Amino acid sequence: MSESRNAILGKLRAGRDAHPLTPPESDFAVLRNKRWDGAERLERIKRMMEAVHTEFLETTEADWPTDVQAFLKAQGTRNLLFGPATEAGGRLSAEWAEGGPELIPYADRVETFKERLFDGIDAGITTTLGAIADTGSLIVWPTPEEPRLMSLVPHMHLALLRADALYDTFWQAMTENRWADGMPTNALLISGPSKTADIEQTLAYGVHGPKRLVVVVIR
Amino acid sequence: MGESSINFAKASSAALQDQQLRGNFRRAMDGLMSKRAVQFADTAEWNGVRALGASVRLRALSKLPELLEKLEANCTKNGIQVHWASTTDEANAIVLSIMQRVNAKLVVKGKSMVSEEMHLNAFLEKRGIECLESDLGEYIVQLDEAMPSHIIMPAIHMNTKQIAHLFKQKIKEAEYTEDVAQLTDLARRVLRKKFATADVGISGVNMAVAETGTLCLVENEGNGRMSTTVPPVHIAVMGLEKVVEKLEDVPPVISLLTRSATAQPITTYVNMISSPRKAGEKDGPDEIHLVILDNGRSGIYADEELRNTLRCIRCGACMNHCPVYTKVGGHAYQAPYPGPIGSILMPQVEGLEKRGELPHACTMCNACVEICPVKIPIVEIMGRLRSEAVHPGDAVRGAGSHASKAEAMVWKGWSMTYASPLAYQFATALLAKLGNAAPASLPLLKEWTNVRAKPRFANRTLHALAREKGIPDV
């Protein structure tokens, strides 16, 4: 271990031991008490996310692949990046009708198709682990089957949200599901399309990440 | 004052003459303040989450050495390589050695205040490595060859017209436009190419979780995710105070941070990174390095009162609410961290010889203390540093460097006069007779009179008037 490491830790320890600090209790009640009823949660999520330009597409378990295809066709989307090895990906391949936007599988390491990913992909679709009412956020854990860049590089990100996978707060989602026992390589909250206000506080969408975020609500 | 000291008074006086700059700041800060107030309109909720946030930060500080060791152990277990740097020189050298090993030519950077503290861009560019800021505000400031003027909104000092001219002048394919959406889209096109080809991505860290070895980054643009996902190597730099104990400590701090900073309930992205690319994963960096920087922080930590500076979560709300910052803007401070937090942090990091003027860039109005989401007693620390600057000691580097014999004599004389009724009567009688004859250009008096009218002494003292009314002296 480095000299600096030991010097820094030594100095911190001496400083702290000379003047120990007793912190106040952490009372999480303020987060625990944030609650919304079932229907209210989704309404709130929609309201908050729409306020930052997120779009919503309502569909059902049976129809979502068809509805997604029809939506993309109407938007003039040329292609859709998807994870072929997920259950949702299986449904998409099986139920994708002829003549719609081209389905492009994210099947290999990014190095094999980086150029196309950055230049030639219009939309990407991923699943989510649910959404959070407090802040209007989607929970996304990328996996080997659904890599990280799918929700970032394509100009449009479609996110599948099951209408029963809703939480009150970020804190509730992480404590109830015991995230601390094992975090994935990357865990994300996504609360809208990419945006910036760096030019004179004027909001503009789609600066580096997706220009559009479409939440596909499956009931 | 030492030769190398930074002249805040001169820089702020120049800034005050710049009507354009003052207008830009006034508009921006007014908007930020009113939007933030809406976010915290529920006072009970604000009090609750603020107390929780402060407790999270204090708990982390109470176990700081242990938590850093735990963070290191868990990051290492997850495959993140941890480096320690006592100084910014050392941190730069660590970053450079990683770059050289992978033969990096192009670096994309997400927003990082610590890298500003390190002057990392200039350091790498001198060594032939292109270092591109990818946060739109930072990108604008970099094109302009300037420094950020706010820790959250780096280009807040410029208006759209100024940025439009800058883009036209500096970006080859740019057409002149004042349309913000078009300007943003231009930056998108330029930077996408860079993300796709960069050898290394550099980011800061908003919070590092000891319990899980997780680096948390919040952002709106997606450049942070790009910088930490696309290049094969990711280097994260953090000040050693950024650690929190548990994963569940993250939500309250993020809530306070995003609402205080930009009045958003949450940023577009909350990016939690716990490991490099694992076997079977198709993207993400193969290597992640975490550089933990001290740069004076362990010294700050040793002092019971000054230690509170390290609670800071870098939301920038203190700037937005500061009557001094909003008038003079960020550049007058000539520091990576301007405003109230900069005025207490910079003197402690870089020493009072160089930064001793900054604690005086404060009216002690307490506005920053009232809105600080983690309750840092900024004004008390400001007063403490003013005192440290004129009294030799070991708590802060450069303590006593601003001591002045003349000032000490004036105070001594004042205290002697006030300790003796006879001396006091004599002195006040003398000033009543002769005080008005003192020229406004007298040293010390000049500090006051060069921008204000000279105060006039009354012909008769208050004591004399009281005696006439039959009120005895004692």
Automatic annotation (TrEMBL), chain A:
Limits of the LUD domain: 42-218
Q: Which SUPFAM superfamilies match?
A: NagB/RpiA/CoA transferase-like (SSF100950)
Q: Which PANTHER family match?
A: LACTATE UTILIZATION PROTEIN C
Recorded protein name is L-lactate dehydrogenase complex protein LldG
Task: Write down the species.
Answer: Azospirillum brasilense
What is the phylogenetic placement of the source species in the record?
Bacteria, Pseudomonadati, Pseudomonadota, Alphaproteobacteria, Rhodospirillales
UniProtKB/TrEMBL annotation, chain B:
- The residues forming a coiled coil are none
Key words of the record: 4Fe-4S, Electron transport, Iron, Iron-sulfur, Metal-binding, Repeat, Transport
List the Gene Ontology MF annotations in alphabetical order: 4 iron, 4 sulfur cluster binding; metal ion binding
Give the UniProt record's GO annotations in the biological process aspect. Answer: lactate metabolic process
**In this protein, which residues make up the domain named 4Fe-4S ferredoxin-type?**
303-324, 354-382
Q: Name one Pfam family in it.
A: Fer4_8
Gene3D superfamilies named among the record's database cross-references: Alpha-helical ferredoxin, NagB/RpiA/CoA transferase-like
Q: What is this protein called?
A: L-lactate dehydrogenase complex protein LldF
**What organism is recorded for this protein?**
Azospirillum brasilense
Question: What is the phylogenetic placement of the source species in the record?
Answer: Bacteria, Pseudomonadati, Pseudomonadota, Alphaproteobacteria, Rhodospirillales
